[in-house]
Amino acid sequence: MQNTQTVEPAEELNVRCEHYRACGGCSHQHIPYEDQVREKAQKLTEILAEAGVDVKVTPDLVKTSEDPWRYRNKMEFTFGRSKEGEMVLGMHRKGSYWKIVHIEDCWLVPERVNTLLKAVEAEANESGFPAYNPKSHHGFWRYLILRHSAHYDTVVACVITEYGDQAHTDFVEAMAKRLQDKFDWIRGFWWGVSGKVADVAIPDHLQHLGGPRDLVEKIGPFELRLHPTNFIQPNIRLAEVMYEDIKEFAALTGGETVYDLYCGFGIIAMYLAQNAARVYGLEIDPFNVDLGRQNLERLGMEHVRLQCGKVEDWLKSGVPWDGLGEPDLLVLDPPRAGMHKSVIKFLKRHPPKRMIYVSCNPTSLARDLGALLGPEVGYRMCGIQAYDMFPHTRHVETVVLLER
Fold first, then answer.
1. What is the pTM of this model?
2. DSSP 226-293
3. Tell me: the pLDDT tens digits for 28-61?
4. CA distances to 85, 92, 256 from 280, in Å
5. Cα(122)–Cα(303) distance, rounded to whole angstroms?
6. 164-193 burial, b for 16+ CB within 10 Å, e for fewer?
């Protein structure tokens, strides 16, 4: 979504964040929150209309967070170097892939995340090891991933570096111990190493340096173990509202078979399993699948099965639910790009009676709905609900119920 309002200096706009003009994290912070919600509803309506989906999304159809600040449970920070030559740890400068903005206080994350962010930055500056340079591909410090438990107000950390020698190892291990001794709310410290050229905070290898291996978080009725790198909705409290709405859309009565495609570590599957006979989840990331299975075992949900694989490949097997039971409900929660065209083709040939589509991108949602709605496939939209999962940004989450 493009913002057409003129961006003025932060002090003139009365925004909270001192980094607003430089950092690209909160592009809508200068817009009053009620107007942000109104703009997202209007833009969602327009994008859907362009694809032939005639539905008016009003502001009251966009559920909002009780507090639009400090809601993110996970943030990835990047190491860089300031003009003065000092190492900084923060966010990418707006419009830049290699310039990093030092962050003193990010208003999207809880205070303890900011505290640990500054402590790691200070440690890295003391180390004498340089930040990784994405142009020369030299340097040591690369990323810091911090995940916060909204229920317990604790944090798990994962620092990601380039490969190093014994001196680097000694420093990182000692740093992890110092920080855990200083802050008793740190629940686990991890070290990842990456030799990737691409600017992605995905380590080649991970090593647990101390504390619990997982962060405990309470999501709805479930107490779950999370890792600093696994995916989950960043706004936990509003995500709980969305998951309950999905359960309400599903309207399960206890005997149904549900398939959850692009399931992550299975949180939607867990919610739906409360009222389903069996739930099958499919996820491409083996780490998410393993974490989900561990949580399902703790919860005693033996009627939920997670499988690792690409949705497109799984569907190529013909009718993949042969032998498992035809779906009474199919849940789709694809990445931002939406569904692969082969998935759309499969659903046209083998359309389930009911589907719930969870989208983080209105453009791909509109494209996919345009292919499924209408007389050719026979789906009709029976419900739509949007969520301002990312206040002060252009993003909006949408859940749609389709029936034949």
1. 0.93
2. E-TTS---SBHHHHHHHHHHHHHHHT--SS-EEEEES-TTSHHHHHHHTT-SEEEEEES-HHHHHHHH
3. 999 999 999 999 999 999 999 998 898 999 999 9
4. 52, 39, 11
5. 48
6. eeeebeebbeebbeebbeeeeebbbbbbbb
